[in-house]
Protein backbone atom coordinates (compact mmCIF):
# COMPACT_ATOMS: atom_id res chain seq x y z
CA UNK A 1 0.00 0.00 0.00
CA UNK A 2 1.38 3.48 -0.84
CA UNK A 3 1.91 5.83 2.10
CA UNK A 4 -1.14 7.69 3.40
CA UNK A 5 -1.48 11.40 2.64
CA UNK A 6 -2.38 13.73 5.53
CA UNK A 7 -3.21 17.44 5.39
CA UNK A 8 -2.79 19.43 8.63
CA UNK A 9 -3.95 23.04 8.85
CA UNK A 10 -2.01 25.24 11.24
CA UNK A 11 0.78 22.67 11.02
CA UNK A 12 3.59 25.19 11.39
CA UNK A 13 3.29 25.64 15.16
CA UNK A 14 2.07 24.14 18.43
CA UNK A 15 -0.49 21.35 18.30
CA UNK A 16 -0.56 21.25 14.49
CA UNK A 17 3.21 20.78 14.27
CA UNK A 18 3.05 17.97 16.86
CA UNK A 19 0.25 16.32 14.86
CA UNK A 20 2.27 16.63 11.65
CA UNK A 21 5.32 15.10 13.34
CA UNK A 22 3.38 12.16 14.77
CA UNK A 23 1.77 11.44 11.38
CA UNK A 24 5.18 11.54 9.66
CA UNK A 25 6.46 9.09 12.30
CA UNK A 26 3.40 6.95 11.58
CA UNK A 27 4.45 6.67 7.94
CA UNK A 28 2.20 9.33 6.38
CA UNK A 29 3.21 11.87 3.79
CA UNK A 30 2.13 15.21 5.33
CA UNK A 31 1.16 18.58 3.87
CA UNK A 32 1.17 21.40 6.45
CA UNK A 33 -0.73 24.66 5.91
CA UNK A 34 -0.56 28.13 7.46
CA UNK A 35 -0.24 31.80 6.57
CA UNK A 36 3.47 32.30 7.42
CA UNK A 37 5.84 30.77 4.86
CA UNK A 38 8.98 31.11 7.01
CA UNK A 39 7.35 29.44 10.02
CA UNK A 40 6.14 26.56 7.86
CA UNK A 41 9.49 26.00 6.18
CA UNK A 42 11.35 25.95 9.52
CA UNK A 43 8.88 23.36 10.84
CA UNK A 44 9.10 21.25 7.68
CA UNK A 45 12.88 21.24 7.93
CA UNK A 46 12.86 20.37 11.65
CA UNK A 47 10.30 17.54 11.41
CA UNK A 48 11.86 16.09 8.26
CA UNK A 49 15.27 15.96 9.98
CA UNK A 50 13.97 14.70 13.37
CA UNK A 51 11.99 11.90 11.74
CA UNK A 52 14.67 11.06 9.20
CA UNK A 53 12.09 11.48 6.41
CA UNK A 54 12.65 14.91 4.80
CA UNK A 55 10.74 13.82 1.69
CA UNK A 56 7.62 13.06 3.76
CA UNK A 57 6.64 16.61 4.71
CA UNK A 58 6.01 19.77 2.70
CA UNK A 59 4.14 23.03 3.13
CA UNK A 60 1.67 25.24 1.32
CA UNK A 61 1.14 28.82 2.43
CA UNK A 62 -2.56 29.68 2.57
CA UNK A 63 -4.93 31.88 4.55
CA UNK A 64 -7.75 29.37 4.89
CA UNK A 65 -10.37 32.04 5.54
CA UNK A 66 -10.02 32.92 1.83
CA UNK A 67 -11.85 30.55 -0.58
CA UNK A 68 -9.30 31.10 -3.36
CA UNK A 69 -6.41 30.23 -1.07
CA UNK A 70 -8.21 27.15 0.26
CA UNK A 71 -8.61 26.05 -3.37
CA UNK A 72 -4.79 26.25 -3.78
CA UNK A 73 -4.52 23.29 -1.43
CA UNK A 74 -6.44 21.13 -3.91
CA UNK A 75 -3.79 21.92 -6.54
CA UNK A 76 -1.02 21.01 -4.09
CA UNK A 77 -2.68 17.65 -3.37
CA UNK A 78 -2.46 17.04 -7.11
CA UNK A 79 -5.21 14.44 -7.53
CA UNK A 80 -3.96 12.08 -4.80
CA UNK A 81 -6.57 10.75 -2.37
CA UNK A 82 -6.42 12.48 1.03
CA UNK A 83 -6.41 9.86 3.78
CA UNK A 84 -6.35 12.24 6.75
CA UNK A 85 -7.54 15.83 7.07
CA UNK A 86 -6.79 17.57 10.38
CA UNK A 87 -8.54 20.92 10.70
CA UNK A 88 -6.38 22.39 13.45
CA UNK A 89 -5.98 26.06 12.40
CA UNK A 90 -7.66 28.38 14.88
CA UNK A 91 -7.06 30.97 17.51
CA UNK A 92 -8.39 33.50 19.96
CA UNK A 93 -9.16 37.10 18.99
CA UNK A 94 -9.14 39.47 21.96
CA UNK A 95 -12.22 41.70 22.06
CA UNK A 96 -10.80 45.21 21.74
CA UNK A 97 -14.02 47.21 21.71
CA UNK A 98 -17.43 47.06 23.35
CA UNK A 99 -19.17 49.01 20.58
CA UNK A 100 -21.57 46.94 18.48
CA UNK A 101 -19.28 47.43 15.49
CA UNK A 102 -16.32 46.17 17.53
CA UNK A 103 -18.31 43.19 18.82
CA UNK A 104 -19.37 42.33 15.25
CA UNK A 105 -15.77 42.54 14.04
CA UNK A 106 -14.55 40.31 16.88
CA UNK A 107 -17.24 37.65 16.29
CA UNK A 108 -16.64 37.67 12.53
CA UNK A 109 -12.88 37.31 12.96
CA UNK A 110 -13.33 34.53 15.52
CA UNK A 111 -15.81 32.61 13.35
CA UNK A 112 -13.59 33.07 10.29
CA UNK A 113 -10.49 31.79 12.10
CA UNK A 114 -12.05 28.83 13.86
CA UNK A 115 -15.00 27.77 11.69
CA UNK A 116 -14.52 29.05 8.15
CA UNK A 117 -10.93 27.76 7.94
CA UNK A 118 -12.21 24.23 8.67
CA UNK A 119 -15.30 24.50 6.47
CA UNK A 120 -13.47 25.84 3.40
CA UNK A 121 -10.59 23.37 3.63
CA UNK A 122 -12.93 20.42 4.17
CA UNK A 123 -15.25 21.42 1.33
CA UNK A 124 -12.26 22.00 -0.97
CA UNK A 125 -10.90 18.53 -0.19
CA UNK A 126 -14.24 16.68 0.21
CA UNK A 127 -14.11 15.13 -3.30
CA UNK A 128 -10.48 14.07 -2.72
CA UNK A 129 -11.06 12.28 0.62
CA UNK A 130 -10.12 8.60 0.48
CA UNK A 131 -13.21 6.43 -0.12
CA UNK A 132 -13.40 4.17 1.79
CA UNK A 133 -11.20 4.99 4.76
CA UNK A 134 -10.82 8.78 4.90
CA UNK A 135 -10.44 10.50 8.27
CA UNK A 136 -11.54 14.06 9.12
CA UNK A 137 -10.55 15.49 12.51
CA UNK A 138 -11.55 18.89 13.86
CA UNK A 139 -9.64 20.55 16.70
CA UNK A 140 -12.13 22.24 19.01
CA UNK A 141 -11.57 23.41 22.60
CA UNK A 142 -12.66 22.78 26.15
CA UNK A 143 -14.12 26.29 25.83
CA UNK A 144 -16.86 24.79 23.62
CA UNK A 145 -17.92 22.53 26.50
CA UNK A 146 -17.55 24.77 29.54
CA UNK A 147 -17.78 28.30 28.09
CA UNK A 148 -15.53 31.08 29.28
CA UNK A 149 -14.41 32.23 25.84
CA UNK A 150 -17.41 34.19 24.49
CA UNK A 151 -17.11 34.20 20.68
CA UNK A 152 -14.29 31.63 20.82
CA UNK A 153 -16.45 29.19 22.85
CA UNK A 154 -19.34 29.66 20.43
CA UNK A 155 -17.14 29.22 17.36
CA UNK A 156 -15.58 26.00 18.66
CA UNK A 157 -19.03 24.67 19.66
CA UNK A 158 -20.17 25.31 16.08
CA UNK A 159 -17.58 22.77 14.94
CA UNK A 160 -19.27 20.07 17.03
CA UNK A 161 -22.68 20.44 15.37
CA UNK A 162 -21.10 20.63 11.95
CA UNK A 163 -18.99 17.52 12.65
CA UNK A 164 -22.15 15.52 13.44
CA UNK A 165 -23.69 16.52 10.08
CA UNK A 166 -20.49 15.78 8.22
CA UNK A 167 -20.15 12.38 9.93
CA UNK A 168 -23.67 11.48 8.73
CA UNK A 169 -22.94 12.66 5.18
CA UNK A 170 -19.60 10.87 4.85
CA UNK A 171 -20.37 7.73 6.88
CA UNK A 172 -21.79 5.82 3.88
CA UNK A 173 -18.38 6.30 2.20
CA UNK A 174 -16.67 4.83 5.30
CA UNK A 175 -15.13 8.21 6.10
CA UNK A 176 -15.06 9.11 9.78
CA UNK A 177 -15.39 12.60 11.25
CA UNK A 178 -14.41 13.32 14.85
CA UNK A 179 -13.67 16.25 17.12
CA UNK A 180 -10.70 16.47 19.50
CA UNK A 181 -11.30 19.00 22.24
CA UNK A 182 -8.10 20.02 24.05
CA UNK A 183 -7.98 21.58 27.48
CA UNK A 184 -5.10 23.84 28.49
CA UNK A 185 -2.08 23.13 26.27
CA UNK A 186 1.13 25.03 26.97
CA UNK A 187 4.11 25.43 24.60
CA UNK A 188 2.11 26.81 21.65
CA UNK A 189 1.53 30.31 20.27
CA UNK A 190 -2.13 30.22 21.32
CA UNK A 191 -1.89 32.48 24.37
CA UNK A 192 0.46 34.88 22.57
CA UNK A 193 1.68 36.70 25.69
CA UNK A 194 -1.76 36.59 27.37
CA UNK A 195 -0.87 33.83 29.88
CA UNK A 196 0.12 34.87 33.42
CA UNK A 197 1.68 32.64 36.12
CA UNK A 198 -1.66 32.83 37.99
CA UNK A 199 -3.62 31.85 34.87
CA UNK A 200 -1.27 28.92 34.29
CA UNK A 201 -1.54 27.74 37.92
CA UNK A 202 -5.35 28.05 37.85
CA UNK A 203 -5.62 25.95 34.70
CA UNK A 204 -3.24 23.28 36.05
CA UNK A 205 -5.23 23.16 39.32
CA UNK A 206 -8.44 22.57 37.33
CA UNK A 207 -7.05 19.29 35.94
CA UNK A 208 -7.21 15.96 37.77
CA UNK A 209 -3.67 15.06 36.76
CA UNK A 210 -2.02 18.23 38.03
CA UNK A 211 -0.24 19.38 34.91
CA UNK A 212 -0.65 21.41 31.74
CA UNK A 213 -1.15 19.58 28.48
CA UNK A 214 1.58 19.54 25.83
CA UNK A 215 1.04 19.40 22.06
CA UNK A 216 2.00 15.70 21.94
CA UNK A 217 -0.94 14.86 24.25
CA UNK A 218 -3.29 16.09 21.54
CA UNK A 219 -1.21 14.68 18.68
CA UNK A 220 -1.42 11.15 20.09
CA UNK A 221 -5.24 11.32 20.17
CA UNK A 222 -5.30 12.62 16.62
CA UNK A 223 -2.92 9.88 15.53
CA UNK A 224 -5.33 7.22 16.82
CA UNK A 225 -8.42 8.79 15.23
CA UNK A 226 -6.47 9.18 11.96
CA UNK A 227 -5.41 5.53 11.92
CA UNK A 228 -7.03 2.73 9.93
CA UNK A 229 -7.81 1.11 13.32
CA UNK A 230 -10.33 3.85 14.21
CA UNK A 231 -12.87 3.07 11.48
CA UNK A 232 -15.76 2.42 13.92
CA UNK A 233 -15.33 5.74 15.77
CA UNK A 234 -17.23 8.60 14.16
CA UNK A 235 -19.29 11.62 15.21
CA UNK A 236 -17.52 11.73 18.59
CA UNK A 237 -15.95 14.46 20.71
CA UNK A 238 -12.78 13.36 22.52
CA UNK A 239 -11.71 15.58 25.41
CA UNK A 240 -7.95 15.77 25.96
CA UNK A 241 -8.01 17.96 29.02
CA UNK A 242 -6.42 16.23 32.02
CA UNK A 243 -9.87 15.77 33.54
CA UNK A 244 -10.80 19.46 33.63
CA UNK A 245 -14.17 18.60 32.08
CA UNK A 246 -15.58 15.13 32.69
CA UNK A 247 -17.45 12.80 30.38
CA UNK A 248 -18.52 15.07 27.55
N1 LIG B 1 -3.23 25.84 23.32
C1 LIG B 1 -4.37 25.59 23.92
O1 LIG B 1 -4.47 25.66 25.17
C2 LIG B 1 -5.58 25.18 23.11
C3 LIG B 1 -6.69 24.67 23.84
C4 LIG B 1 -7.81 24.27 23.15
C5 LIG B 1 -7.86 24.34 21.78
N2 LIG B 1 -6.79 24.85 21.08
C6 LIG B 1 -6.90 24.89 19.61
O2 LIG B 1 -5.86 24.12 19.06
C7 LIG B 1 -5.55 24.59 17.74
C8 LIG B 1 -4.05 24.81 17.63
O3 LIG B 1 -3.69 25.83 18.53
P1 LIG B 1 -2.25 25.95 19.21
O4 LIG B 1 -2.47 25.95 20.68
O5 LIG B 1 -1.32 25.00 18.62
O6 LIG B 1 -1.89 27.46 18.84
P2 LIG B 1 -1.00 28.08 17.67
O7 LIG B 1 0.41 27.68 17.87
O8 LIG B 1 -1.34 29.54 17.65
O9 LIG B 1 -1.55 27.37 16.34
C9 LIG B 1 -2.56 27.91 15.51
C10 LIG B 1 -2.17 27.64 14.08
O10 LIG B 1 -3.23 28.01 13.18
C11 LIG B 1 -2.68 28.69 12.06
N3 LIG B 1 -3.71 29.58 11.53
C12 LIG B 1 -4.42 30.51 12.21
N4 LIG B 1 -5.24 31.18 11.38
C13 LIG B 1 -5.06 30.63 10.15
C14 LIG B 1 -5.61 30.91 8.86
N5 LIG B 1 -6.51 31.88 8.67
N6 LIG B 1 -5.19 30.18 7.80
C15 LIG B 1 -4.27 29.19 7.98
N7 LIG B 1 -3.71 28.89 9.16
C16 LIG B 1 -4.10 29.61 10.23
C17 LIG B 1 -1.47 29.44 12.63
O11 LIG B 1 -0.46 29.68 11.64
P3 LIG B 1 -0.29 31.12 10.91
O12 LIG B 1 -0.42 32.17 11.95
O13 LIG B 1 1.07 31.05 10.28
O14 LIG B 1 -1.40 31.15 9.89
C18 LIG B 1 -0.94 28.46 13.66
O15 LIG B 1 0.02 27.56 13.07
C19 LIG B 1 -6.39 25.86 17.55
O16 LIG B 1 -7.55 25.54 16.80
C20 LIG B 1 -6.76 26.26 18.97
O17 LIG B 1 -7.96 27.01 19.00
C21 LIG B 1 -5.64 25.26 21.72
What does this structure look like?
This protein starts with a strand and ends in an 8-residue tail after the last strand. Helix 4 (100-125) links the parallel strand 4 and strand 5 (135-139). 42% of the residues are buried. Strands 3-2-1-4-5-6-7 form a seven-stranded parallel beta sheet, with helices on both faces. With 248 residues, it is α/β, with parallel strands linked by helices. The longest helix is centred in the middle third of the chain and has 26 residues, at 100-125. It has a single domain, classed as 3-Layer(aba) Sandwich (Rossmann fold). The protein has helices at 14-25, 37-51, 67-77, 100-125, 142-146, 151-170, 197-205, 215-226, and strands at residues 5-9, 29-34, 57-61, 84-87, 135-139, 176-182, 237-240. The chain contains eight helices and seven strands; from the N terminus they run βαβαβαβαβααβααβ. Helix content is 44%, strand content 15%. NADP nicotinamide-adenine-dinucleotide phosphate is lined by residues 9-10, 12-16, 33-36, 39, 63-65, 88-91, 113, 117, 139, 141-142, 182, 184-185, 188-190.
Relevant terms:
248 residues; alpha/beta; Rossmann fold; seven-stranded parallel β-sheet; 8 helices; 7 strands; 44% helix; binds NADP nicotinamide-adenine-dinucleotide phosphate
Amino acid sequence: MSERLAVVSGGGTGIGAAVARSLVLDGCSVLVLGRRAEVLSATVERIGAECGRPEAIRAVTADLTDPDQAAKVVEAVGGRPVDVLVNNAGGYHSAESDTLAGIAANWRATLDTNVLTAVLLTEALRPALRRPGGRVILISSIAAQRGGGDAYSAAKAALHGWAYSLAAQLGPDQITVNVVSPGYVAETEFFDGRMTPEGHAQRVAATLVGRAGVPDDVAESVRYLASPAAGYVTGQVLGVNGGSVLGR
